[in-house]
Amino acid sequence: MKLKKLNSPNNKPHSNDRYLITYADLLTLLFALFIILYAMSKPDMERMQEVLRAMNNVFSPNQIVDGNNLSPDVSSAETPPVILFPSQPKNILDVQNEVGNALSDLIASNSITFQRIPEGVKLLIPNKFLFPSARATLLTQSDEMLDSIAFIIGNLDMQVQVDGHTDAVPIRTFTYSSNWELSAARAVSVVQGLIERGVPANNLVVRAFGEQRPIADNLTEEGKEQNRRVEIIITPKDITAATTDAANGIVD
User: Fold this and answer.
1) Spatial CB neighbours of 149, under 8 Å, sequence gap ≥ 6
2) Angle at 209 between CA 194 and CA 157, to 5 degrees
3) Fold classified for 92-247
4) What 3 state SS string does the chain have?
5) What is the pLDDT of residue 70?
6) Low-confidence stretches of the chain (pLDDT beneath 70)
7) Rounded distance, CA 218 to CA 168, Å?
């Protein structure tokens, strides 16, 4: 004779689905990791800030567990913003030191020439690191350089002046009829690249000089290469362009 097994409060049916909670947590963490890796593959300051804010909200340590569901604590709704840009320097000496230190690798490789001037900082970038010959479309290899520069100047409440220069070889193409137009287009391309990387547009100034302000002899190939450049000059907003030129010994 078979006896039926009596159900008791201690003989509850065992669930085989408890592993799904751990599995779901693992998938969530992996998904978050790939989002961060994707965002970091090409730094976009605004997008990265949004991603990190979202991650702070999702993985806040103030979350509470309610049965099998995770519900965020109401007190964790307000999280401090993620700061990606460096802290605001207090004076022009801080700017000089910060820019010099942050761009030390590019300076050491001669990709950028760093100059301290009385009013601020001047960066000289040879066009060969930015543009193809006789064109104003930024090269892909310039991305890392512009990322580094934008990261430093993006939080500076200062005037950022971008000057385009060429050598003295006349140019007349379908796109550009003179060196003036080419130097202007190149300066605008750099400014657009900085704006796309989060630099405030109201801090930026574009100037074009064509071949009018050489820094080397245009009779040699080495001199021409030095003259083909973009200059980024960082100064307080109350410093006018004329004052900056005078401080650098430039007289029209």
Assistant:
1) 103, 123, 194, 232
2) 35
3) 60s Ribosomal Protein L30; Chain: A; (3.30.1330)
4) CCCCCCCCCCCCCCCCCCHHHHHHHHHHHHHHHHHHHHHHHCCCHHHHHHHHHHHHHHCCCCCEEECCEEECCHHHCCCCCCCCCCCCCCCHHHHHHHHHHHCHHHHHCCCCEEEEECCEEEEEEEHHHCCCCCCCCCCHHHHHHHHHHHHHHCCCCCEEEEEEECCCCCCCCCCCCCHHHHHHHHHHHHHHHHHHCCCCHHHEEEEEEECCCCCCCCCCHHHHHHHCEEEEEEECCCCCHHHHHHHCCCCC
5) 41
6) 1-16, 39-90, 239-252
7) 6
pLDDT at 19: 73
Separation between Cα atoms, residue 114 and residue 240, nearest integer Å: 21
Q: What is the pLDDT of residue 105?
A: 86
pTM greater than 0.70: no
